[in-house]
Write a structure and sequence with these properties.
alpha/beta; Rossmann fold; 6-stranded parallel β-sheet; 12 strands; globular; aromatic amino acid biosynthesis
Length: 281
């Protein structure tokens, strides 16, 4: 274990709630393994205290911090600069403090792509279907657009950001209604990858699934659900029953953390050591 001294730097994660997060274990394992004199803490901050947290982060100074729900969008007015990915996503999950200047980045989408690559999934020029159009979907779309040929999003409501991204990215993005099951089934037949980005499948909806039954999942399809608790949602159980290659959200969480770590330290996170610490092997 590292010894905390007067020179030890501070990182953290701000959200509400946040005590369940395994980000502190992830980053502290990496700091210790690499011999970096820094520590990482969880900051559970109420909405009415959030602006004071940002002031404190500048003053202390906290060298960098992750941002989780409900502050990924709320933090934007407090930042001095955004990376291109954060600008496209209109959201931030990673902040670096350079002499009081706060720079916002988003690593969720990059984390998802790296998890796919670790699985050996070949994304180049593939058609992808995504369920849900929330913040996680937008981050994944921005990252995937560099690789895939087409993205179809199925959602219950319209989202203006889809048209906005179509004007800024070369990969065509189409938004369709989740109620159009015939179109969904056809698109899945032609797709390489299905990504589930909603909360459906988490407590208290563990027995729910946006896919009607496993006949929607053709034998060539890869299936990803960004939920990691439970480890297997109803969708992933369907995929397993069909003999498909699938993954939950653990890899995305791991690699978005690794991307944040690199953004702060310019060093690669020691993935294997972190996996052992998180019991992901």
């Amino acid at each position: 274990m590292n010894t905390i001294t007067g020179y030890t730097g501070l990182y953290g994660i701000v959200a509400n709630p946040i005590k369940h997060s395994f980000s502190p274990m992830m980053h502290n394992t990496a700091f210790q393994y690499l011999g970096i004199d820094d520590v990482y803490l969880a900051f559970e901050v109420k909405k009415e205290d959030f602006s004071q947290f940002i002031t404190s982060a500048r003053i202390l100074p906290i060298k960098g911090f992750n941002v989780s729900m409900p502050y990924k969008v709320d933090i934007l007015p407090y930042l001095d600069e955004l990376t291109p990915e954060a600008k496209l996503c209109h959201a931030v999950n990673t902040v670096k403090n350079i002499n009081g200047k706060l720079i916002g980045h988003i690593s969720d989408g990059i984390g998802f792509v790296k998890a796919c690559q670790e699985k050996g999934w070949h994304l180049l020029q593939q058609k992808v279907v995504i369920l849900g159009a929330g913040g996680a979907c937008r981050a994944i779309v921005v990252a995937l657009a560099q690789y895939v040929s087409e993205i179809i999003i199925y959602n219950r409501s319209q989202k203006e950001w889809v048209q906005e991204l179509n004007q800024q990215l070369t990969c065509p993005i189409t938004l369709k209604s989740l109620s159009d099951l015939e179109s969904l089934k056809k698109d899945l037949q032609e797709s390489y990858l299905l990504i589930q980005t909603t909360n459906v499948g988490m407590a208290p909806d563990e027995d729910e699934c946006l896919i009607k039954d496993d006949t929607y999942l053709p034998e060539h399809l890869k299936v990803a659900d960004i939920i990691y608790h439970p480890q297997q949602t109803k969708l992933l159980k369907m995929a397993q029953k069909r003999g498909l290659d699938f993954m939950n959200g653990e890899g995305m969480i791991l690699y978005q953390g690794a991307e944040s770590f690199k953004f702060w330290t310019n060093q690669e996170m020691p993935i294997e050591q972190v996996k052992k610490s998180l019991k992901m092997e």
